[in-house]
Write a structure and sequence with these properties.
The chain is an alpha/beta fold. Helix content is 56%, strand content 11%. A five-stranded parallel beta sheet has the order 2-3-1-4-5, with helices on both faces.
């Protein structure tokens, strides 16, 4: 059986990751492909418990403890949900993965890259995304979008300097030089997240099509053309 692809959505706060991930899953399922949509942290009973700890507003967590909690959630998610799905040929669409760790814990928090990379290796073994989609918006626009939510999580409440570092890390990740130096993250494409949901989805499909098997490309491209016609 052909192993399923792992498609990851990444980006700073408020760029629309979850919206576009759900749209991609819906499009793939409409064309008969088995998909599972998961999030980090979360996706398992343990992971959701860790998520509630990590994202609780105003909770004080040291950077090292924070990073290890993310890794624990990731390790459980990989073993319990991601690996079995990929082995069964299912498409896994994941909202955040290791690139967020680079952006938030290494660049944002200032943890040593070598230590975090080693911890991630323990968590994910040999799992590498088929493609990672980094949605990009100016920091102020993304935070403004995030600010419209009913509640703000712990990460959203951190200062502008922190979010500037995070945004810069995501921007750097889409460069060929960064990707060559970080093979554990797999191929990465940067997508402009401004404009309508239809416009952003069309850019995503155009950006990722060459990384997917032909059987997956055709349906997605048809959806984009149908949306443009409407």
């Amino acid at each position: 059986m052909t192993r399923g692809p792992l498609i990851v959505f990444e980006g700073a706060e408020g760029v629309g990751k979850t919206t576009q991930a759900r749209r991609l899953v819906a499009a793939l399922e409409r064309h008969g492909h088995a998909c599972v949509h998961l999030r980090e942290p979360g996706g398992t009973s343990l992971g959701e418990s860790i998520r509630s700890v990590l994202l609780e507003p105003f909770r004080s967590i040291t950077p090292r403890a924070e990073a290890l909690l993310f890794m624990a959630s990731r390790a459980q998610l990989i073993s319990e949900r991601v690996e079995p799905a990929l082995d069964a040929g299912t498409i896994v669409v994941l909202d955040r993965f290791f690139l967020s760790t680079y952006a938030y814990q290494i660049h944002g928090r200032g943890l040593a890259a070598s230590e975090v990379v080693a911890a991630n290796k323990l968590a994910v073994a040999d799992i590498v995304p088929t493609i990672t989609i980094v949605l990009g918006l100016p920091m102020a626009d993304g935070l403004a979008r995030a600010g419209k939510r009913a509640a703000h999580d712990y990460m959203e409440q951190l200062g502008s300097d922190f979010h500037t570092r995070v945004g810069a890390a995501f921007d750097e990740s889409v460069t060929p030089e960064w990707q060559l130096a970080h093979p554990e993250c797999g191929p990465i494409v940067g997508i402009d997240a401004s404009g309508s949901e239809d416009e952003v989805f069309a850019r995503i499909v155009d950006g990722i099509a060459r990384f997917l098997a032909p059987r997956l490309q055709s349906g997605l491209i048809a959806d984009v053309h149908q949306g443009a016609a409407n």
